[in-house]
């Protein structure tokens, strides 16, 4: 993972509420533990017809180049699967913003380098009403800055925030503490 302190990107808006993990990546694509290539399966049943032909869904026609997904309420509900954030990352999204994100999805997302940000209903309404705007997400100040001075604050678990800013997952964080652990063990043995 790359360290993230700030993300500057434009938004793609999916206004639908209750987008579950099976819509994000259908269960039939959960046959791999490889993260790359899953972007093709992201929102597959929305983006492709039964015969495999691409549809005119905005995810096919308008999403390219937008790294921030603004989704309707209750994003990522349903079954737990790490493949969902993997698919979104491989599709090109680096952040998901909603007024409510399912806890398990949010945890999986943050552990895998996908910013999963919950904002208050007023900020969410503004973002839904203004697609394709440029935002700057700042993890140091935990603020989202938009056009014309618009801004909102958000909260993240302190450990998840630290890992994102370091560019490591939980195991990577522990491995980075190897010298401190060795020093503690050495001092304790003495």
Per DSSP, the total helix count is: 9
In N-to-C order, the SSE pattern is: EHHHEHEHEHEEEHHH
CATH superfamily, please? Aconitase, domain 4
Tell me about the largest β-sheet.
7 strands, mixed
Secondary structure tally: strands: 7
How many whole angstroms does the radius of gyration measure? Answer: 18 Å
What general form does the structure show?
A: globular
Using the coordinates shown, work out and report the CATH topology.
Answer: Aconitase, domain 4
- Helical content stands at 25-40%
- CATH class, named Alpha Beta
Average pLDDT number: 94
As residue ranges, the low-confidence spans are none
Number of domains: 1
Give me the secondary-structure topology.
Blueprint: E1 6-14, H1 21-24, H2 44-47, H3 58-61, E2 68-71, H4 83-91, E3 95-98, H5 103-111, E4 115-118, H6 121-129, E5 134-138, E6 143-145, E7 151-153, H7 158-166, H8 170-176, H9 178-189
Parallel strand pairs: 1-2, 2-3, 3-4
Antiparallel strand pairs: 1-5, 5-6, 6-7
Can you describe this structure in just a few lines?
With 190 residues, the protein is of the alpha/beta class. The protein has a single domain (6-189), classed as Aconitase, domain 4 (Alpha-Beta Barrel).
Describe this protein's structure.
The chain is an alpha/beta fold and 190 residues long. The protein has a single domain, classed as Aconitase, domain 4 (Alpha-Beta Barrel), CATH 3.20.19. It has nine helices and seven strands. A seven-stranded mixed sheet has the order 4-3-2-1-5-6-7, with helices on both faces. Strand 6 and strand 7 (151-153) form a beta hairpin. It is globular. The chain starts with 5 loop residues before the first strand and ends with a helix. The model has no long low-confidence stretch (mean pLDDT 94).
């Amino acid at each position: 993972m790359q360290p993230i302190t700030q993300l500057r990107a434009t938004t793609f808006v999916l206004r639908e509420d209750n987008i579950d993990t099976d819509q994000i990546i259908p269960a039939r694509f959960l046959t791999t533990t490889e993260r790359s290539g899953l972007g093709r399966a992201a929102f597959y049943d929305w983006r492709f017809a039964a015969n495999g032909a691409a549809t005119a869904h905005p995810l096919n026609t308008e999403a390219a180049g937008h790294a921030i997904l603004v989704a309707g309420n209750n994003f990522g509900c349903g079954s737990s699967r790490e493949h969902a954030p993997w698919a979104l990352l491989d599709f090109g999204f680096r952040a998901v913003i909603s007024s409510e994100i399912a806890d398990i999805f949010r945890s999986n997302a943050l552990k895998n380098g996908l910013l999963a940000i919950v904002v208050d209903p007023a900020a969410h309404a503004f973002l839904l009403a203004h697609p394709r705007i440029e935002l700057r997400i700042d993890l140091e100040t935990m603020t989202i800055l938009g056009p014309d001075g618009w801004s909102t604050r958000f909260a993240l678990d302190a450990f998840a925030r630290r890992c994102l800013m370091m560019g490591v997952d939980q195991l990577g964080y522990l491995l980075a503490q190897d010298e401190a652990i060795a020093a503690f063990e050495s001092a304790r043995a003495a």
